[in-house]
Amino acid sequence: MAKTIQAIRGMNDLLPEQSPAWQYVEGVLRDVAAAYTYQEIRMPVLESTDLFKRSIGEVTDIVEKEMYTFDDRNGDSLTLRPEGTASCVRAGNEHGLLYNQTQRLWYMGPMFRHERPQKGRYRQFHQFGIEAFGMPGPDIDAEVILLSARLWQAFGISEQVELQLNSLASNEARARYREALREFLRAHEAQLDEDSKRRLDTNVLRVLDSKSPETQQVLENAPKLSDYWDDESRAHFEGLTQRLDAAGIKYVLNERLVRGLDYYNRTVFEWVTTELGAQGTVCAGGRYDGLVEQLGGKATPAVGFAMGIERLVLLLESQNKIPASQVVDVYLMALSESAELKAPAVAEKLRDQFAGLKVQLHSGSQNMKKKLAKADKSGAEYAIIIRDNDFELKHLRNRDKDDLIITDLAQLASVFQTTNSK
Ligand code: ATP
Ligand code: MG
């Protein structure tokens, strides 16, 4: 037998058994985005490598070690997108969607990062993202956070997620803080983990979210970012928290929340859960006022977030929040040769008459017992058995009366009359 070929490590098939959960989740995401008047944008999965280097930052985890980068046949360096914001800004600039306009956009699709695969962390994963362009005030930060909060509400997991907030302030304030932090950490360099030592020079803010307990211990006495906030950023942050308070959204200030991408300023936030082990961040975002200009557009403020759909589905599964789905409502079988010839036409009529009815037509010649066994295995609510001149409706499962799909037998009978008379 030929050797079987397997999927790439960390890149998962989504099997029929799992797709109803994903369709449910995607449907809610779309509906909630629409309720806030966000419109969908779809970008290619491949972009110029430079796009991500210039936006995410050269010394971030993503660009340093996680990108799928290769030369195409023309020798151009291309990268499978590791995230959506850079592509979205690129597309917005390219099509003139951003300058002097307001845009509320969402996207959904696969992202690619070469990471060590584990629960909630994959090499191909999916994000749903929101981006709002052209609005500088804290009102729009509040809007994207409220949109995410409504998602948890819709999914029934508000109790399982916590909102963490911080402000990275202005570029100047952050630069001053960086210097202070670097100076402090240099004095304690010996106690830092290797990654953090390396980051002292390249990306010192990232030391703040080091997972090493020793490093976290050192950070207890480190200078605090909020002591370096500039007045405008402080007012912006207060404007946001006042709006969240008014809307009844709880949050905690996490001074060590800095995010792994370089383009953020002012507001940053994460929705975190304790239900998924180490991969606890389900949604992360913030303001990125400099990015549009950095990528060649006219200066345009922006704010957004990205949500990991795998982590969201895992969280919903852990809380039993995925609604049951029905693949087959009616299993249709014929018990005579002439009925068999009519069966596909009857199935069509059923689909015409009962909107949304899921009809599976038995295929193959087996005896009635086997056909009924298949009908039962299909999970169908009814079997319909057609004979030469009549039909029988069999209830395979007891449902609440409200859930019954075919309640009107007269309507069902009419299906057979019209097919018979042909
Ligand atoms: P982490 O700290 O877990 O690596 P991140 O900061 O790299 O996350 P972002 O770039 O902010 O993640 O992406 C936003 C969201 O996308 C994350 O909060 C998470 O839900 C999801 N995500 C990121 N990387 C992966 C991955 N490799 N597999 C599955 N989901 C992911
Ligand atoms: Mg990461």
TrEMBL record:
What top-level branch of life does the organism fall under? Bacteria
At the top of the EC hierarchy, this enzyme's class is ligase
List its EC numbers.
6.1.1.21
Q: Which InterPro entries match?
A: aa-tRNA-synth_II, aa-tRNA-synth_II/BPL/LPL, Anticodon-bd, Anticodon-bd_dom_sf, His-tRNA-ligase, HisRS-like_core, HisRS/HisZ
> What Pfam families would the database entry show?
HGTP_anticodon, tRNA-synt_His
Q: Where in the cell is it found?
A: Cytoplasm
Which BP terms from GO are recorded?
A: histidyl-tRNA aminoacylation
Entry binding sites for L-histidine: E83, G84, T85, R113, Q127, E131, R259, Y263, Y264
Please give the Gene3D superfamilies that the UniProt record associates with this protein: Anticodon-binding domain, Bira Bifunctional Protein, Domain 2
Q: List GO terms (cellular component aspect).
A: cytoplasm
**Per UniProt, which keywords does this protein have?**
Aminoacyl-tRNA synthetase, ATP-binding, Cytoplasm, Ligase, Nucleotide-binding, Protein biosynthesis
Q: Which residues form a coiled coil?
A: none
Q: Name one GO molecular function term.
A: ATP binding
Q: Does the keyword Cytoplasm apply?
A: yes
Which family is annotated?
A: Belongs to the class-II aminoacyl-tRNA synthetase family.
| Family annotation (NCBIfam families) | hisS
Self-association or partners: how does it assemble?
Answer: Homodimer.
Protein name, UniProt field: Histidine--tRNA ligase
In its UniProt entry, the species of origin is given as: Pseudidiomarina aquimaris
